[in-house]
């Protein structure tokens, strides 16, 4: 049965705790009374208070420009109603609304299923290939073909087991009329190189207004492979731009560059699990940074976003990132960064009619602080931030807007849930 709860929202208050986080978003909290004395320095110079007031993980790092971190706190005036459409989902990773109002959901161990708009949970869809379900790996994102209404094709990303390790791959298949199985299943893209690790697979898949498929990839985390985020003969730590058949888009920026992977669109990313198009069709991503360095980036063709040479964070051990700086000519500065981190996953620019005050805002899943993050963005700068649904105490893994204007969320836990968020009465 679906349950519901109406939430009255209020602005976040000062939190007298500092959090040291792992990449997977878990937190070890320690009591402290130290407040960040520079909290207001990075907020825009308005009559406001920054939302984030906790001690920084990397207090020695300073923003490159005003408003790049610790934006003003904003508040949603509309009460939110959260309906639990489904529970007992095992570490759901993605939710994709279907044209009829039902929801396609992936579970990390390797299952894909449909939850109806009324909350009926379907059996696992047959035909999904084997995944490497370990650590951060498994069955990950899912997206509908731009022509789904006529071709019933879906695309999904997953950590694929290979003879020499594993890596992120994309497959596609045709959903049967009764929605119980996939046919014509084919792996259309395999990221290279394979690596025997269990972290930083990415991966969001998003179809742009140009009809191309954008895939976000992590750099696999470990020190030995991390430098490949800057190496053009590797897919690691990149955003790729592919055709619907998984081939390099013909006008990609490096297709004619010797020793460069032709699929590469942008370079220098750590682990991107959030990607969304704004109302101009531009791609924005939110990526897991190191401790104190989660980033919001506006993606531009052929640009280098810095990792691991340019970052605001530090190693989770507390040591500095080797030879890194916070800004450097030739590298793109993040539009915004978080310190402490939010551990971002899933994102959606809101364009529906149910929440007029959210129009054009970016909604982001927060794993570490178990929250839905709302950013107000004006002239490509963040001017306000709000953390919602914290009282639910669940890790928000993916965020999607339905055709009805409602927000659909899956939560990352053994007993994960699927929520529908609408205005309260």
From TrEMBL:
Residues 89-419 form the Glucose/Sorbosone dehydrogenase domain. InterPro entries: 6-blade_b-propeller_TolB-like, Glc/Sorbosone_DH, Quinoprot_gluc/sorb_DH_b-prop. Keywords: Signal. Residues 1-18 form the signal peptide. Residues 19-67 are annotated as: Disordered. Gene3D superfamilies: TolB, C-terminal domain. Residues 19-47 have a biased composition (Low complexity). The keyword Transport does not apply. Pfam families: GSDH. Coiled coil: none annotated. PANTHER family: ALDOSE SUGAR DEHYDROGENASE YLII, HEDGEHOG-INTERACTING PROTEIN. This is PQQ-dependent sugar dehydrogenase.
